[in-house]
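re: that chain from earlier
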Amino acid sequence: MKKALLLALTLFITACASTIQSASVSEAYKKYERQEFERTLELITRAENAKETVPEMKAELTYLKAQAHASLGHQKIANTLYEYLVEEHKDSQYGYLASKKMNTKL
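^ sequence. v structure.
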Protein backbone atom coordinates (compact mmCIF):
# COMPACT_ATOMS: atom_id res chain seq x y z
CA MET A 1 0.00 0.00 0.00
CA LYS A 2 2.81 2.40 0.88
CA LYS A 3 4.55 1.68 -2.42
CA ALA A 4 1.37 2.40 -4.38
CA LEU A 5 0.84 5.65 -2.49
CA LEU A 6 4.45 6.67 -3.03
CA LEU A 7 4.19 5.88 -6.74
CA ALA A 8 0.96 7.86 -7.06
CA LEU A 9 2.50 10.81 -5.23
CA THR A 10 5.60 10.71 -7.45
CA LEU A 11 3.46 10.68 -10.60
CA PHE A 12 1.39 13.57 -9.27
CA ILE A 13 4.47 15.67 -8.49
CA THR A 14 5.95 14.93 -11.91
CA ALA A 15 2.70 15.96 -13.60
CA CYS A 16 2.63 19.18 -11.58
CA ALA A 17 6.21 19.99 -12.57
CA SER A 18 5.34 19.49 -16.24
CA THR A 19 2.30 21.73 -15.89
CA ILE A 20 4.32 24.44 -14.15
CA GLN A 21 6.99 24.26 -16.84
CA SER A 22 4.49 24.44 -19.72
CA ALA A 23 2.55 27.27 -18.12
CA SER A 24 5.74 29.22 -17.41
CA VAL A 25 6.97 28.88 -21.01
CA SER A 26 3.60 29.97 -22.39
CA GLU A 27 3.43 32.92 -20.02
CA ALA A 28 7.05 33.89 -20.82
CA TYR A 29 6.16 34.23 -24.50
CA LYS A 30 3.14 36.38 -23.61
CA LYS A 31 5.25 38.65 -21.42
CA TYR A 32 7.90 38.91 -24.13
CA GLU A 33 5.26 39.99 -26.65
CA ARG A 34 4.09 42.64 -24.15
CA GLN A 35 7.71 43.79 -23.81
CA GLU A 36 7.83 42.79 -20.14
CA PHE A 37 11.36 41.47 -20.48
CA GLU A 38 12.30 41.23 -16.78
CA ARG A 39 9.18 39.16 -16.13
CA THR A 40 10.00 37.05 -19.20
CA LEU A 41 13.38 36.19 -17.66
CA GLU A 42 11.75 35.29 -14.33
CA LEU A 43 9.32 32.93 -16.05
CA ILE A 44 12.11 31.30 -18.06
CA THR A 45 13.98 30.64 -14.82
CA ARG A 46 10.83 29.15 -13.31
CA ALA A 47 10.42 26.87 -16.33
CA GLU A 48 14.07 25.78 -16.16
CA ASN A 49 13.78 25.00 -12.46
CA ALA A 50 10.41 23.22 -12.61
CA LYS A 51 11.94 20.06 -14.02
CA GLU A 52 14.85 18.90 -16.12
CA THR A 53 14.54 20.18 -19.65
CA VAL A 54 15.10 18.17 -22.81
CA PRO A 55 17.69 19.65 -25.21
CA GLU A 56 15.10 21.19 -27.56
CA MET A 57 13.34 22.91 -24.63
CA LYS A 58 16.70 24.09 -23.27
CA ALA A 59 17.53 25.60 -26.67
CA GLU A 60 14.12 27.27 -26.93
CA LEU A 61 14.36 28.79 -23.45
CA THR A 62 17.93 29.93 -24.06
CA TYR A 63 16.94 31.64 -27.31
CA LEU A 64 14.03 33.44 -25.65
CA LYS A 65 16.34 34.41 -22.78
CA ALA A 66 18.86 35.84 -25.27
CA GLN A 67 16.13 37.84 -26.99
CA ALA A 68 14.90 39.24 -23.67
CA HIS A 69 18.43 40.24 -22.64
CA ALA A 70 19.01 41.89 -26.02
CA SER A 71 15.76 43.83 -25.63
CA LEU A 72 16.91 45.01 -22.20
CA GLY A 73 20.18 46.25 -23.71
CA HIS A 74 22.24 43.43 -22.19
CA GLN A 75 23.94 42.68 -25.50
CA LYS A 76 26.97 40.95 -24.00
CA ILE A 77 24.76 38.43 -22.18
CA ALA A 78 22.61 37.96 -25.28
CA ASN A 79 25.68 37.33 -27.44
CA THR A 80 27.02 34.78 -24.97
CA LEU A 81 23.70 32.94 -25.07
CA TYR A 82 23.62 33.06 -28.88
CA GLU A 83 27.17 31.66 -28.97
CA TYR A 84 26.13 28.85 -26.63
CA LEU A 85 23.23 27.98 -28.94
CA VAL A 86 25.45 27.97 -32.02
CA GLU A 87 27.98 25.68 -30.33
CA GLU A 88 25.73 23.35 -28.32
CA HIS A 89 22.50 23.30 -30.34
CA LYS A 90 23.78 23.86 -33.88
CA ASP A 91 21.40 21.26 -35.33
CA SER A 92 18.29 22.82 -33.81
CA GLN A 93 16.20 25.65 -35.18
CA TYR A 94 17.35 27.80 -32.26
CA GLY A 95 21.00 27.20 -33.10
CA TYR A 96 20.24 28.28 -36.65
CA LEU A 97 18.34 31.39 -35.49
CA ALA A 98 21.16 32.28 -33.09
CA SER A 99 23.68 31.92 -35.91
CA LYS A 100 21.65 34.33 -38.03
CA LYS A 101 21.49 36.81 -35.12
CA MET A 102 25.25 36.61 -34.66
CA ASN A 103 25.92 37.09 -38.38
CA THR A 104 23.79 40.24 -38.43
CA LYS A 105 25.84 41.66 -35.54
CA LEU A 106 29.13 41.39 -37.45
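The CA atoms of residues 69 and 80 lie 10 Å apart.
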